[in-house]
Write a structure and sequence with these properties.
Elements (H helix, E strand, L loop, with lengths): L1 H18 L4 E6 L10 E4 L14 H17 L3 E2 L6 E21 L3 E7 L4 E7 L3 E22 L5 E11 L6 H33 L4
Parallel strand pairs: 2-3, 2-4
Antiparallel strand pairs: 1-8, 4-7, 5-6, 7-8
Amino acid sequence: MKSRLIKFLGVAAVILVLAGCGPSAHVETSRNANFDRYRTFAWAEKKDRRGRTGSSTMMENQVKSAISDRLQSRMGWQQVSRNPDVVLSYDVLVERGSRVESDPRYSWGGFRTFYNPYSRRFYNVYYPSMFMGYDNYEVPTKEGTITVTMVDTRSDETVMQGWATDEVNSRRISGREIDRIVDAIFRKWESGSKNNRYNERGRNGRANGRY
């Protein structure tokens, strides 16, 4: 029974650690935005200081593809080349970061040999190892942040901006890392949208005397 409990606690600890290692996402939306009326989107053009449109890298194409796929599959929006409801832009940033790791620290444990002068014999005494706490240290990492900005084409107002940060392996964010970060943004956005609709129904119900 005790061994099963230890195994259960170990599995639970691993699950909690993995759950806390996901991308950290934040989303801001405009109070004036009505996302239910949006149906189409397009991408803003990236130009250099001379006004020339540069070619996109493979990583940039992966970012755009990840965002477009989620808008189409989750929101039901369509990407168009003329008269979109919203225009999208994005930014990718990779910075140096660090994370704190901990190693358990134990006292010395083992046998020590002593001599009994009265019996003229040697004997061993066992000293158990004792838990003394943790040694904390910082590990250098790289953190990748993707920011998605959505602008209403009729009013030129920013109606949504979301960003998420996750640990990455190199300055070039991989496709899998891009999917994790973009997915975190959309989960946060969808969660906030559901809460906003719930609160709006609640306010309307109270105003009509239903509560």
